Structure formats: structure tokens, C-alpha cells
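User: My instructor asked us to take a sequence, write out its structure as C-alpha cells, and then describe one feature of it. I'm not sure where to start. Here is the sequence I was given:
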Amino acid sequence: MKSTVSVIGAGTAGLIAARELCRKDIKVSIYDQKSVPGSQIHASGILSLSGLKTLDVDYHKASTNRLYGANIHAGGENIEIRSKEAKACVLDRKELNEICIEEAVREGVRMNLGKRVTGTELDVLHASSIILGADGAFSSVAAHFGMGSIGRYVLTYKAEFNVGGRGGVVDLFFDRETTPGLFGWLCPNSEDILEVGVGIDSKKGNAKKAFERFIKTKEITKIIDGARMIDGGASMIPISRREQVVDNVAEVLLVGDSAGQVKASTGGGIIFGSNAAIIAAEEIQRHIEDGTSLASYEKRFVKEYGLDMALHKVINSLYSRIGNRSIGIGLKCMRWLGVDSFLGKYGDMDRPSLMIKRALLRSA
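Assistant: Let's start with the prediction itself. The C-alpha cells for your sequence are:
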């Protein structure tokens, strides 16, 4: 039986998996085609504080702002959600990756950077080690080992503007015409930097063109008028699970974006993907020591996070299918019912199942 692991992809999920494996005295080598992993990340870095606690990552150096709520806009209506305590923070994704690399190396992970792993090289690694694919939405590991496809993606485009005074609140704009399949957002990355971005269904057009339409809307133009655009970039994010995420016979597993372990409601994947990486490390240890099937990795992930993944998918389906006016009416009803106050106190951006349980307990 194989007793070493080769991790393909040095993103957050891959690095956390490698770190956890080394902590279990399992020999791990990690491979990434970039010489500086994370240097070209264009995804946003809004992560819940409750989710970050589960990852055991010293993320504080990467934090650029703390977030206390959100304004949600649609159909001429809006709802304001506020908390007395910070619920999330904005992280510099490049800095976060560097922190994860430092932690992995400190635990003994062998880093192999700046060289793409070809199919032939994958076969060589596979001959003597378990393969853990953490190489993104278009995973070469998944393709090489025939692990099926991912059904849905969103395209995003974001840029930073030198606009300050936005505090610790995110603005979300739902508009089926401008951002079909996701939404537009304003996020104060720091005191004087505002991130402006959009996400759209990959089958509904071009994200950069959607971004250009978004920043020309009356609300956004008013905010960024005269500001300098500092940086911009696109990304493609999976928002559905891959057909297969583990092959016990071949001893191949996928985590993070490679597996499609992403919140369909927002496109955020670090918390779910990294928790999957922790579970994968635990199940690999059991597999090596006791011969336990690696299929238990998928079973555990579904048991612990399957309901929340399904609820995020439902949320995405709702706002993607109904019109702007209907969403606006929904926001108005939420205000009338006091849902804004409830979310400010009990809201959880990762685990909607916990909010439902709290609501049921309050009504009991």
C-alpha cells in the first residue's frame, strides 16, 4: 500500500491538506506550475471569521479589513444587515497563500514549484504515491484520471479603486440583466481601497463587459466617479460539484475548486474546500494505517457540509430565476418580518443550515 502523498496544486486547499498530512507523519510533496503560487489570484478574499477558525491558519497578517454587515440591493429596494461584532474579514489572497506555504514548509512539506506536472509525470508520481488534486477548476488531475466534469461555472471580473470611507460593509447588487447568475458587489478592501466586481453565469456572456455595464450604472458611477482604477482581473469559478471526487482503487482524491466544493450562492470556496482538505488528510491517514476506503472522504464531506452546499445551490437558483422586481419585493418582506435583524445577530455566510436551526429554535 502507498504511504506517501503527492499534492498537485499549491493553492490554499492543497497547502492545508499537505500541512495536515505532514502533521500526521505522512511524507508529502506538493507541486505547482507557478514559481510563486497565488501571485495571480483574481478571486475576492471575503471570508467569515467563524470559517477561518476551523482552518487553523494564522491569517491575521493577510487581513486588510473587518466586515460588520451587508447592504443588499434589488428592484429598487434594499435591506441592511448589521452586526455589533465583525462577522468576516477581507484577506489579501496572495499574502494568505504565502502564510499557508510558510506553515506547510515548517511542518516538513516538500515544495516543488515552477514546473507543470504533465500526464506522464503524474503517472510516475502515481506509481508510488497517493494523488491529491488541488489544481483548480480545470484540474489536470481530474482530467487525467477520468473523474468527470463540473456542470456550472461563473465568470467574475473585479477591479480596485482608490475610494475610501466605505467602512466595514459590503454592498451586493442583484440584477438579472447586468449580472445574470450571480451579482455585483462593492467591498471595502481597506480604508482607502474599494473592490468593485461582478459575477455572471459562464453561459450568459462576458464578465468584463458585464463589469463595464455595472460601473456605468447610476449607483456605482456616483461612488467611483473620478476614482483611479488600480488593478483588474478575471477568474472562472465552479459552482457545482464534480461528478467524482475520489477513486479508492486508483487512490486519487480531489479537494477545493478541483472538486467543485464552492458555495453556489457567492462563489466562495476557501472555507468549504479547505475543510474538505482537512477531512481528506484524516481519511488518507486512516487509509494508510488501517486500509480504510478513501471513499469515506466523500461520505464525511457530504455528511458534514452536504446540506449547506445544497442550500447555497437553492439560494443561487432563487435569485437567478426570479426577476429584479420579485427580488425587491422579497427584500421588502424580509424587512417587514425583521429578517434583517435576525441575520445581523445570527447570520452565517457559510452555514445557512445553522441559521435555519436557530430560527426554528426561536419559533419553538
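For the description part of your assignment, you could build on this observation: The longest strand covers residues 229-238. Try explaining in your own words what that tells you about the chain.
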